[in-house]
Structure formats: C-alpha cells, structure tokens
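Q: Please design a sequence for this.
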C-alpha cells in the first residue's frame, strides 16, 4: 500500500512540477515576445514618423522661420529671406 501511495504521489508531483515548469517557460517566452513586439512597434512608429516628416516639410509661412538667418550665398552676395 505504501509503495502504491509513493508511486502515485511521485507521478502527481511530476505532473505538478511539469505544469509549473511549463508555466514558467510560457511566462518567460511571453515577456520576451512582448519585448520584441514593443521594440518592433517603436521601430515602425519611428520610421513612419520619419517618413511623414520627410514628405511633409514645414510650410514657408511658418512664424518660427521668420527668426532664422539665411546663410546661403547666391550670385556672390548673401541672400536675405525677409
């Protein structure tokens, strides 16, 4: 009777240990997958924002541009943008 109890107890502890082990691996894989998706989302968002800024330059009537000094020399003289 004691041998049967120890046998079933060993099987039960093996099953419980396997469930805990697989749950731990699942948690680690889930965290790693979440980090990969987070980084991938950041890269995609950065690329999309960069392309948006590249294809949509600021308008020329921007008030901030009036304070910018134009340092481009055109036809041998310094150009003025105002």
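A: Design:
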């Amino acid at each position: 009777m004691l041998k049967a109890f120890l046998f079933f107890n060993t099987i039960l502890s093996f099953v419980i240990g396997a469930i805990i082990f697989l749950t731990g691996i699942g948690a680690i894989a889930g965290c790693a997958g979440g980090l990969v998706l987070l980084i991938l989302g950041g890269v995609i968002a950065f690329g999309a924002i960069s392309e948006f800024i590249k294809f949509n330059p600021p308008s020329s009537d921007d008030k901030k541009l009036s304070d910018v000094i134009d340092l481009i020399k055109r036809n041998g003289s310094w150009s003025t943008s105002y």
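Q: Thanks. Anything notable?
A: The CA atoms of residues 49 and 55 lie 10 Å apart. Residues 2-78 form one domain.
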